[in-house]
Amino acid sequence: LIMIITRSPLRITLGGGGTDLPSYYKNKEGFTLSAAINKYVYISIHKTFQKGFYLKYSHFEKRKTIDQIKHPLIKEALKEAKIKNNNLEIGSQADIPAGTGLGSSGSFTTALLKGLFLIKNKNISNNYLAELASKIEINNLGEPVGKQDQYIAAYGGIKVFRFLRNGTVKISKNIIKDNLIKILEKKLLLFFTGFSRKSAAILREQNDKTKSNSKEMIKNLDFIKELGIQSLQSLQKGNFDEFCTIMNEHWLFKKERSKKMSNTYINSCYDYALKNGAQAGKIVGAGGGGFLMFYSDKKEKLQKALKKKKISEINFKFDFEGTKIMVK
Hints:
Elements (H helix, E strand, L loop, with lengths): L3 E12 L6 H7 L1 E18 L4 E5 L3 E4 L8 H9 L6 E8 L9 H16 L6 H15 L7 H8 L2 E6 L5 E4 L5 H10 E5 L7 H12 L3 H23 L2 H17 L7 H12 L4 E4 L7 E5 L3 H10 L4 E2 L9 E4 L1
Parallel strand pairs: 3-5
Antiparallel strand pairs: 1-2, 1-12, 2-5, 2-6, 3-4, 6-7, 8-10, 8-11, 9-10
Helix pairs in contact: 2-3, 2-4, 3-4, 3-5, 4-5, 8-9
């Protein structure tokens, strides 16, 4: 083994976001329409001659044992993969910074696990990869997150996930015709709001309210799930006007889940975009910053307008490969 490099795609949610948390799907079943995009988290793993763990991410760690490791995801992944080696260098890089609502921790964990299992000459299935990554974040670390990110990172493509009460995830493939996917890819745009945030605070609020049976929160998530199903149906028919109406409605309801979801700056960007060429939009992920996604038939008009506002665009396409080994 010289060097292993793996990569995992980031994602955008096209419908049903928030219903993939156990606090919701254990009672009601969750539904998301998710799409992987060609922006990635990369993990490199390298055996060294010196004993110890050398970790390079936004910080640098040099540790003698797994238990001393500060990075929670790396520590848990090494334990779950039952790594016996004690001479590893692990590095991570990403196309887009963490905390921007594109599911980076799910991508990070799936890419890392894929590489760690490869060290042991084991290739693991996408399903096992997604489940193990979910277990690390939800069970081991108690993060208030769902399973969507880990699943879409592992599988790639555009998928419908149904999160059953018993924790099983059902995946529907080939749900939208290729020609309609191409249209969707052309018309969706991503713009960075300029600031990142930790999604945990927003998600914890949702999680706590759902667990305590807050009628308002559960009713909101029921409606978001219904809108997600309608989003899928409108894309299957190729009715993009209907898809836009649903996306705008989704954003209004999403904002009601938490005061932290949006702010005056995000709201003004959203309103400005809708006056300047966007038909629909919403924030991607838990909210509070990160990326705004718009659907537009007048792409150039919207791009010019948002350039004036100094909001940077990220060009993307859909990714159909999921978590993969780049170098081994």
